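Support case: user asked for a sample of complex input and structure output to validate their parser. Sending the pair below.
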Amino acid sequence: MSGDSSSRNGPLALAFHALFIAFILAPLVVVIAVSFTGQGYLALPFDGLSLRWWRAIGDNPRFLESFWYSTRLGVTAATISALIAVPAALAIARWRFPGRGALVAILASPLMIPHVVLGVALLRFFSGFGLSGSFAGLVAAHVIVITPYMLRLVGAGLSGLDPRIERAAESLGADRFTVFRRVTLPLIAPGLAGGWILAFVTSFDELTVSLFLASPAANPLPVQLFNYIDQMTDPLVASVSAALILVTALVLLGLDRFYPIDRLLTGERRA
Amino acid sequence: MTRLDRLTPALLTAPSALVYAAALLVPLAGVLALSLHGFDFEKGVLPGWGLANYQDLFTDPLFGEALARTFRIAGLTTLICLLVGVPEAWIIHRMDPRWRGPMLLVVVGPLLVSVVVRNFGWMVLLGTNGLVNQTLTALHLPGAPYRLMFTELAVVIGLVHVMVPLVVLSVWASLGRLDPVLERAATSLGAGRFTVFTRIVLPNVMPGVMAGALMVFCLSASAFATPAMLGGKRLKVVSSMTYNEFLNTLNWPLGAALATVLMAAILLATLLWTRLVEKRALRRLGEVAQGGPA
């Protein structure tokens, strides 16, 4: 890059940028700030910092229970999604077969289907089998929601892979499965890992579909938080939210070290 | 090719196809079927078939209002996201490489924070005694403090916050494919910053802009959490009406009809957008990029 790059944005552009960043960060910063209030209600500014509402998280086991429930849900759904998406991505990348175009469109379609519609459809369908309000029902719903992301990242990994490497292994006598296990899988591992993490985070944050399928026994964190806010907004919501923001920020910073976030979210390969 | 070779793609796609059929296609067909049944508060879902639910919806002024509000909010959100997100992506793209990564992280990082948390932040900011109103009052604006919460404005602000990183990302990805030589060539030929942006950069990133716009529009029109939290109970959009029918009123057939209308409306908007706007805009801008009539 040329040396003049730092001065390429004019003052107007930089002012615009500052306002944009302020807009993006404002609601997050406010949530973190208000979580340190010592008062019994939400107000900014307030006098005196206090950890009162952070301690209150520990006294309300329902948020912690929902946190672990969402974690289990995300891990299960992301793993199942990987198991079905990798073979599908392989077939799409390596073979031409009848119905390929339709399959690609259907596999990506959950991105375009309103989550309310998905929730309604699954609530009605699962209640016929007693699956609504169960872990299995939520897992199935989340697999549908997150698989398009998984496919995009695994597919990007596969498209950057030279098929000649696989053919070389085959010509040396490796059978199909060995080629996959010893050559293809290690080479698409970064895309797979990125896809898994993005799928996990998407599942962990998913609210709308879960709202339809949740029950007191199956209560992911976003649903718990949404229903709590619907009843009342006290600083406990702020401390739980702030904790979530901080955990996400830590995950993001760690993730960015080995998988740049723009590539994670767009599935682009960048030189 | 052996028989097994021909079977391989079928075997590889079978797991995903089965999961999608069982947990997506069949349930969606079920919604469509359910919307054609009648409903009685005592007897539940009635066996007969008909379009009565749709008739009820389209003669209900409340539904018309919600439908108009849904698309008004989605359209406004998309417009603001484009006006703000496209320049922002361009500004980040032109930053010193040292700053680019961290800035992109700040802009798109919030995408990974739960929408519930972000909406809650706006609830705190936009309340009658919130920071926004405190600032406006301190500036002695006439009429301050304003009622911001539970208005369409609040919903649009919340949605823009949720959606604008998607536009930045989409345009950012297109900018990465842009050959920097093009810009330098234009500059060396005497083009100013603004001309370079409108004549060189914008036409080249148009596919990213269009894709981002469509995504934001669809997601805004189908959004549930933000209208529910920032719009409140009375400011109904189609998705919150659907939620209400399913989880409060329990008139599932009517809710299914609402869901079907929402989905059909979004599909129609997508189709119109790709057929009319996207193609025409790309063709016209293609001419500009090639030096044709502007």
